[in-house]
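Appendix C: a fully annotated inverse folding record. The material below is reproduced so that readers can follow the format used throughout the book. The structure is listed first as tokens, followed by the designed sequence.
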């Protein structure tokens, strides 16, 4: 029913493995800290991309928050999110939008948690390899009975 690639914190580097991992996805979500617009252009060669600004993306032409409806799900994308403690501004946005899934980045750590009926997913850090920092992306697959996710390590 649908498959989505989730990535964040590329910081200007798109690992060639990502293009292989995301081959065949219906859409890609980039949850901020893009680095260079060329990263998004490369990803758009695979599938349509929804991307948001990260705290290191000054000057890029993206918004801080995006909301997309795909496969019967409402997905909100925002770079800095603390699941369960979204802060006042984001809390109001969550209340207004009522997303099924919130995609985020910033922490450089994979995370999958449910809070108040909302599924929060951080795919982890996917930028240039550095000092034993684990790198990963995620996939979300839609099925007749909902959705599933999995993290994929970038070795």
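Designed amino acids, in order:
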């Amino acid at each position: 029913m649908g498959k989505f690639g989730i990535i964040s914190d590329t910081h200007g580097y798109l690992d060639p493995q990502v293009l292989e991992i995301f081959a065949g996805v219906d859409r890609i979500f980039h949850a901020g800290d893009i680095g260079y617009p060329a990263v998004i252009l490369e990803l758009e060669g695979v599938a349509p991309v929804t991307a948001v600004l990260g705290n290191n993306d000054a000057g890029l032409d993206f918004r801080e928050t995006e909301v997309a409806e795909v496969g019967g799900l409402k997905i909100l994308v925002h770079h800095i999110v603390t699941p369960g403690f979204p802060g006042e501004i984001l809390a109001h946005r969550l209340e207004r939008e009522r997303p099924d899934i919130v995609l985020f980045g910033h922490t450089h750590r994979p995370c999958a948690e449910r809070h108040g009926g909302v599924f929060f997913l951080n795919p982890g850090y996917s930028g240039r390899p550095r000092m034993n920092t684990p790198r990963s992306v995620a996939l979300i697959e839609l099925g007749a009975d909902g959705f599933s996710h999995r993290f994929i390590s970038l070795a």
